[in-house]
Design a protein that fits this description.
This protein has helices at residues 10-21, 33-40, 51-60, 71-76, 98-110, 127-138, 158-163, 175-184, 200-231, 235-243, 264-277, 283-306, 335-344, 357-363, 373-377, 397-403, 418-423, and strands at residues 2-6, 25-29, 64-67, 79-82, 115-119, 144-148, 168-171, 195-198, 315-319, 348-352, 368-369, 382-385, 408-411, 427-429. The protein is α/β, with parallel strands linked by helices and 439 residues long. It has a 6-stranded parallel β-sheet, sandwiched between helices. Helix 9 (200-231) packs across helix 10 (235-243) and helix 12 (283-306) packs across helix 13 (335-344). The longest helix has 32 residues, at 200-231.
């Protein structure tokens, strides 16, 4: 099948490369000429394990190419996927559909023959109806069906998620569109990829509901972590105890500094706005959003308490800046309000991240960046572990203690064992576990 992928951001580039790897002919289109030129040179604009090799392999096989002009690839395509950004709109929290609507109009002018136009971007319920209206308004003779096919990709594991999905949600009631999309995803049948056909609006809501539920699980266990600290319980054992119940499940029950990233914050906000527009109040989701925002800033106070109360003039080492490991994504990362809070308290902040420092400099220009974690910790009055990169799990604790001015470690991801940290002489604070002091 011939596929045009509009947008070469995270979803578009990963999806396009994976579709090409299935054997389809894929053209990824983006208006950013510099990005397209870089992709043609083999330079990948995002950090995602395995993506560079996947793109290189399929470009060499002539199944994947890149363009700035969508007219030719859209005119030849069996399916056109819209994978452009839908950021939170300034002022009201609604999803900004400017790029989606612009893409719809351009696609309408370029389509030829029967074409399935697929919204892969995360969009509010009813967006497919509007995309269809715009296409028919722009080109009344277009033979087009508009479908919804939301993505469920985790950054850092996106390629595996695409090729071994829990489910593939396809929102269309049109039999021709169903046949085209079933054929596009047919290579997954060997992996028993479950296709779920549903109404378009239902598919749009599935995406938001899934992200809101996962955000709720994270926020729930974070609040249980706070209670665990007060009553002397261990949140990791609590999470295991409830996660073994298959009605609950163990995933997304890891206490930490709050969720971030490109999806959960904006999608929970957008879902609340969608509900309000339809006179429905999502009280649980509203609480999740509020609790998460407050929690991120509260982590700075947790560091201050561990370091003796005042941070004025103290040096704090921050390990991990991206919102999760195996990505360079800084969008809504918990490190941003944490570092801002530390600076507001008068601390000097040094930071290290294996992949995210270039992006972090745009968000946090007033801190010092270090080439390795030990240089970051050198002379620090406290070290804060924010992102659970694997590189930080096996640090030489004896060396770390020698480098630091004060052996204070605040582990916001619970990657170290309390007993081991105490045995090495650290004052160790984690999330939802009893405090352990140096021996």
């Amino acid at each position: 099948m011939r596929i045009a992928m509009i947008g070469t951001g995270y979803v578009g580039l990963v999806s396009g490369a994976c579709f090409a790897d299935f054997g389809h002919q894929v053209t990824c289109v983006d208006k950013d000429a510099e990005k397209i030129a870089a992709l043609k040179r083999g330079e990948i604009p995002i950090f995602e394990p395995g993506l560079d090799t996947l793109v290189e392999t399929n470009v060499k096989a002539k199944r994947l190419d890149f363009m700035t002009d969508l007219s030719v690839p859209v005119g030849e395509a069996d399916a056109v996927f819209i994978a452009v950004g839908t950021p939170s709109r300034r002022g009201d929290g609604h999803a900004d559909l400017t790029y989606v609507h612009a893409a719809a109009r351009e696609i309408a002018r370029a389509v030829s023959g029967f074409t399935v136009v697929v919204n892969k971007s995360t969009v509010p319920v009813g967006t497919g109806d509007e995309v269809e209206r715009l296409i028919r308004e722009t080109n009344p003779g277009a033979d087009v069906e508009v479908a919804s096919n939301p993505e469920f990709l985790r950054e850092g594991a996106a390629i595996r998620d695409f090729k071994f999905p829990d489910r593939i949600v396809i929102g269309t009631s049109d039999e021709r569109a169903q046949r085209v999309l079933a054929e596009i995803y047919r290579p997954l049948s060997l992996n028993q990829g479950p296709l779920m056909f549903t109404a378009r609006r239902t598919a749009e809501l599935i995406k938001y509901a899934a992200n809101a539920f996962l955000a709720t699980k994270i926020t729930f266990i974070n609040e249980i972590a706070d209670l665990s600290e007060k009553v002397g319980a261990d949140v990791q054992e609590v999470a295991r105890g409830i996660g073994l119940d298959n009605r609950i499940g163990s995933k997304f029950l890891h206490a930490g500094p709050g969720y971030g990233g490109s999806c959960f914050p904006k999608d929970t906000r957008a879902l609340i706005k969608i509900a309000q527009d339809h006179d429905v109040q999502l009280r649980i989701v509203e609480a999740v959003l509020g609790v998460n925002d407050i929690r991120k800033r509260a982590m700075a106070r947790k560091v201050a308490a561990a370091a003796g109360g005042s941070l004025r003039g103290k040096t704090i080492a921050v390990l991990g800046l991206t919102f999760k490991p195996d990505t360079d994504d800084m969008r809504e990362a918990p490190s941003i309000p944490l570092v801002t809070g530390l600076l507001d308290m008068g601390a000097k902040v040094r930071a290290h991240d294996p992949a995210g420092m270039e992006q972090a400099r745009k968000e946090l220009p007033d801190i010092q960046y270090c080439d390795d974690p030990y240089a970051c910790a050198k002379g620090a009055d406290a070290m804060v572990l924010v992102t659970e990169w694997v590189q930080y799990r096996a640090m030489d604790l004896e060396r770390l203690k020698r480098e630091m001015a004060q052996p204070v470690v605040v582990d916001l991801r619970n990657i170290y064992r309390s007993e081991e940290m105490a045995a090495h002489g650290f004052v160790y604070e984690s999330v939802g576990r009893p405090s352990r002091k140096e021996k």
